[in-house]
Amino acid sequence: HVFYFNRYECHLHALLYFQVLLVTWAAACLALTTFYDYTTRDALTAASSSAGLFLAGAYGSLLVYRVFLNPLNRLPRPWLARVSSFYWSSRLGKMDSYLQLQAMHKQYGPIVRIGSGDLSVIYPECIDLAYGPDAKAMKSSFYDQELPLRSMQTMRSKAAHGQRRKIWAPAFSDKALRAYETKIESYNDKYVRRVTESIGTPVNASNWFNLYSFDVMGSLAFGKDYHMLESGERPPALELLKEGLGVLAFYIPTWAFRLLLAIPGLASSFHAFVKFCVDELDWRVKHAAEIDEKGGKDILSWLLKSYEGVEKPQADLMLQADTRLIIIAGSPDSSDITATTLSALFFFLAQDPSQVQTLRNELRPLTEGRKWSDVDIRQAPHLNGAINEALRMYPPVSSAFPRLTAPEGMRIGDTWIPGNTTIRAPQYVMGRDEASYEDAEKFVPERWYSKPHMVKRKEAFAPFSVGPMGCIGKNLALTELRTLTARLVLEFDVQLAPGQEKVIRMRDHITVDAGDIYLVFTKA
Ligand code: HEM
User: How does residue 219 score in pLDDT terms, banded at 50, 70 and 90?
Assistant: First the structure.
């Protein structure tokens, strides 16, 4: 433990360690019976007690280190958090990591230890120190969960990530976004049609936002229409994945997660999803000529440019993983990322008709009597303020992606954080912290333009993360959010359906889903 496990990252080899132990134990039994005349029973007892003593030694050393010697012990924490990171997982039975973090910060202060080597930090300066352009911290072992599958987002090396990001960048340039907007508009039309069909009756608006965001992403990623908004159904692989993703809600250590993935049958839904993405990529590559002929570039057409001359780009593991990343980033299966924000925003608007009226008054002069697009409403302050409020109060990445402090450690405020510590800056807790926002529990879009005193620490707001590994799809997501919101508030009034709770109970599985939100739309 002292010379190996406590020094190196070992999370990739848990299965191997287990196998080596098992093989050594079996070999010892065999050797004792073959060469030393042990009876089978005595050999089993001797080998098992040696293995037991070895494990007791290794785990005993680990326990002594964690309970008495770990420099993190001086930081505020529940006692059990110093013993194991499973302590944190054990609190997450309700898939509410964001609420558990909030409760712990309330009890222990702005820095709290949530596992043997894990901290949660809500000081606003942590955003720049851990995620910003000059951050020395790197992505933690969390990003190795799916190895050997590695997408741009899970690349831990800054240099390798930077290179891959250069390949992605043109797909999110202004020029590319303008082309995508035509496709987004057609799905905005479909959403408005669905609302029109059910005017005056309660609808599961969050489910529709999910279907909408996947339809958009399918079209932008593969140039393919999944017709989910029309059919109301997701492809079976996505349904399966939704079930399989439950395990992410427990934030179990990477070594344990990888062990679970290795158990045949347990990760079948994950593998079905991987296959779905590979099949879709294969389809996309085979239909490239046809899609190009129809015009209107999609995200993959940009990524595929760097594979020109490669015979079977779909066989590249990294392209397969990147394809999955696009689907996950915009789809209803795991993340509901854009959909969560739309759901939260309309949940707030439905409780306050004056908000809808303010938005309408702002948007009418910008849109009336002409064919408008995102560029016409991009600067609308109340619209942007309302979207920011939805992102602040129900951030789609609520508990934050973890980072590992550099070996030399990091100072946050007055607190010294040792090297190789995993830290996270949870947006949900930070978004509701009175130290950063006045009336933090209130939905006040004006705080982002006419009442700046209500944002005390602007740097606390980072729903898309920041720096070179921050969200590359931010502008695309904002285009979707602004244009669909504008279409809906210009045409409809909205209120909560009878019986709809006045709180969103998000389920947090790294990204969150907002659950069902029933709304009633009426003609404006
Ligand atoms: C409201 C909507 C969205 C939010 C709040 C959001 C948030 C985030 C966050 C916090 C990260 C950083 C992840 C990390 O540190 O590991 C991220 C990365 C990323 N997002 Fe988004 N995202 C949104 C929408 C989208 C959309 C629509 C796309 C389109 C494909 C997208 C594509 C990506 C990609 C590719 C990355 C990885 C970037 C990299 O590793 O360089 N996101 N997003």
Answer: confident
The identity of residue 438, as a single letter, is: E
Class of domain 158-523: mainly alpha
Residue 339, Cβ density class (10 Å: 0-12 exposed, 13-18 middle, ≥19 buried) = buried
CA 394 to ligand 1 centroid distance, Å: 16
> C-alpha angle with apex 287: 281 to 291, nearest 5 degrees?
110
Between 79 and 242, where is the model more confident? Answer: 79
**Could you tell me the CA-to-CA distances from 67 to 77, 117, 152, 164, 355 in Å, in that order?**
12, 12, 37, 41, 52
Per the prediction, the chain carries an average pLDDT of 91
What number of CA atoms fall less than 13 Å from residue 134's CA on the CB side?
2
Cα–Cα distance measured from residue 518 to residue 118, given in angstroms and rounded to the nearest whole number: 37
Helix-helix angle 268-286:205-222, to 10 degrees:
50
Whether the complex's predicted ipTM surpasses the cut of 0.90: yes
- Domain locations in the chain as residue ranges: 158-523
Residues near ligand 1 with C-beta < 6 Å? Answer: 152-153, 165, 325-326, 329-330, 337-338, 341, 396-397, 401, 463-465, 469-473, 476-477
Q: Are strands 410-412 and 403-404 parallel, antiparallel or unpaired?
A: unpaired
Query: Which residues have C-beta within 8 Å of that of residue 318, sequence separation ≥ 6?
Result: 150, 151, 152, 164
Mean pLDDT of 261-280: 81
Q: How is 446-461 classified by DSSP, letter by letter? A: GGGTT-GGGBS-GGG-
Amino acid code (one letter) for 147: L
